[in-house]
Amino acid sequence: MKEISIDSKIVMGYIYSSLFWGVIGLLLGLLISVQMWAPAFNFGEFFTFGRLRTVHTNVLAYGLGIGAEMGVFYYIITKLTKRSLIFPKLAIANLIIFNIGILAGTITLFMGYTQSLEYAEFEWPIDIGVVIIWVLFAVNVIGTIATRKEKHMYVSLWYILVTVVAVAILYIVNNLPVVVSLTKSYHIFSGLNSANVQWWYGHNAVGFLFTTPILAMFYYFLPKSTNMPIYSHRLSIISFWSLVFMYLWTGAHHLVYSPVPDWLQTLSIVFTIALIAPSWGSVVNGYMTVQPDWSKMNSQYLTKFFILGITFYGLQTLQGPSQGIRAISSLIHFTDWVPGHVHMGTMGWVVLVTTASMYYIVTKIYNTTIYSEKLANTHFWLVLVGQVVFSITMWITGIRQGAMWKSYNDDGTLMYTFMETLVGNYPYWQMRTVAGAVFIVGMLFFLFTLIMTVVKGKREQSSK
Amino acid sequence: MSKDNSIYSKIIPLVIAMTVVVLVGTVITMAMPLLRDDMHPKLASTKEYTAIELEGRNIYQREGCVNCHSQMVRPLTADVVRYGDYTKAGEEFYERPFLWGSKRTGPDLARTGGRYSDEWQIMHLKKPQTFFPKSNMPSYAFLDRPADAVDAEKSMKALSYPYTQEDIDQVANSTELEALTAYLQSLGSDIPDNQYVKVDYLDYENTMAPMSTVSPETKVAFVDNCAGCHGTAGEGTDIAAPLSDVIPADIIDGNLFVSIANGIPYTMPSHIGIMTKRRMWELALYAKELANKNRTATKTTTTNRKMSAVDSGVNK
What we know:
The structure holds 2 protein chains of 2 kinds. Chain A has a domain at 1-188: Cytochrome c oxidase-like, subunit I domain (Cytochrome C Oxidase, Chain A, Up-down Bundle). In chain A, strands 1-2 form a two-stranded antiparallel sheet. Chain A is mainly α. Chain A is 74% helix and 2% strand. In chain A, a hairpin with a 2-residue loop joins strand 1 and strand 2 (184-187). Chain B is mostly helical. Chain B folds into 3 domains: 7-39; 51-186, Cytochrome c-like domain (Cytochrome Bc1 Complex, Chain D, domain 2, Orthogonal Bundle), CATH 1.10.760.10; 201-315, Orthogonal Bundle (Cytochrome Bc1 Complex, Chain D, domain 2). In chain B, helix 4 crosses helix 7, helix 9 packs across helix 13 and helix 12 (253-262) crosses helix 13. The interface between A and B is large, with 100 and 89 residues.
């Protein structure tokens, strides 16, 4: 039997690791969704909502998200540079450090060691680990690309490179601590600057962990799986530079109506609206790529993952900017609308594109075909329906509660107590739990199909 | 598309170009504000946290309270009426990190200091459903354990906040619930009279009274908003004495109305933001009616008197 290459083993190692963390993160998500309407499901100190919500977001962003990105990136890089990874042993060591880091990070968050900065909750010793992981990753990425055998650098490589650069800057700056002890630190920035730096980080973490990396995958795997060239390289160049330039200006749209100076809020809102253009540049590029032959949606099972994925990216990048507008922010900020928005991006765009990329990679690495297109399609429909119901229920109850918060009686007093506005969420939160469960079942279909494809590939190899 | 000698085939210039492009917005919107005066103003009343407040804040962080509670009242009428004066930049001087949050699964807490008694806060943390049966807040009964004075002292040192040995001893002699409560009671205290909307007895004495009937809706409102502390029939609970003890028989209706509307610091929350003035008048009448009923019915039992709400409010 022919062994798969060391590069392929590394890629598979990252994929398996990310799926392991993914399952944990998703199940915790399901539990906290139940806790939202049934407080009896908070168990003792370590399983209360306040701690678990942080574990949920971090395990999925760092364990599933970054794990998957590192694996898929290594695959894309070796293909686009036409060479193997420059430091394979370093990549294996990094995989081990990555898993130890995520495990340590998860445990410390369960213990309540948190910096209370959204998506930067890990305490400073874990941050050091994250930086080490990222630097080792960067060394391999930049080293391999620098010594590539293919002169031309395809757009996916630029997206990978900018991800490496931007995440490093963002992560290091926002995690600068005033150290109290091994398990406790305070933000080095205080007050308005604490808020402004955090949301410069927070918004761009989304940009450079869930936008540019997924675009790198999209630009590579959509043409690969459809066998159709990308519609316009020029459009991809324009989109790339304008996206990367404008993203960094937009953090303060999370701070609308806060004490942060108006000029900062307004500046960020303007750039937020402008960001629609480069985002839709990629959306249009994706649609136009498939334009010559839309029957691929039917004949090639991965096409629909990418096209629906980029569609949710397009919706996300219209909805997000609209949320920055003051009038809309005043209604939906602090409500469930926002988790609805976030989950369309993660469960729609990120998951559809990433899982489709993984299907493609596994069939290539094991030189086989998908174990069952029918199961992959079931996976597709379950995660699609789960995500859409999740997002829509949250949007409805977000507007509902936001409107109740600002309903007045004739004499100028407020119509509803806080509790009255809260209990109206319960039926929607229950529907969200059901939607989340449907999504998770879809993800289990994905896991099964992916693993069975590997098994099938190995069996075919050994029988040769 | 890209020519062989273009930037797209040279990795070092390309990475440098990307870094520069990423840094433009970063410098202007993140780094430059660090140096600007309008980013770190300070109110004269804004002081460092005390040791027990800071330890409480550490616990607030540890338990992820920020995941459900915002601490940022927006300058919007609806926010200000419900919670109090909007959050000022100058209050944030010592906030490391800021704890504004991004979700209000529970109510905003920026102005919660002084709205309730310490006792209420502790009982509520232990079992929120005591006061709000439909609340989804978890029980924090596990915080009924000694607070970590060593951690508190280290934290005070790291931030160079002034403290004395007594301050640290106070933490050592407190539970985590008490430390957390001390922190909650400090929220909003930089703005002394932060309750934005208030009623004045004189304004409403003549327009609203006299009123003699109590609607069924008001009785429901009493159960939802008052019974948690006062009991469904005003008989009192662990946290509040019977209404007959706190409402003197000869009370002036307007005084009772104003107490319900504006609240009584560190004793009873205000209600002016969340119910109509008519409803509050009816509640005043209903409470008085229940108090009188109690007075005649329960001459025999002596309830332990926790506090006399109206009296303590008048004295403050």
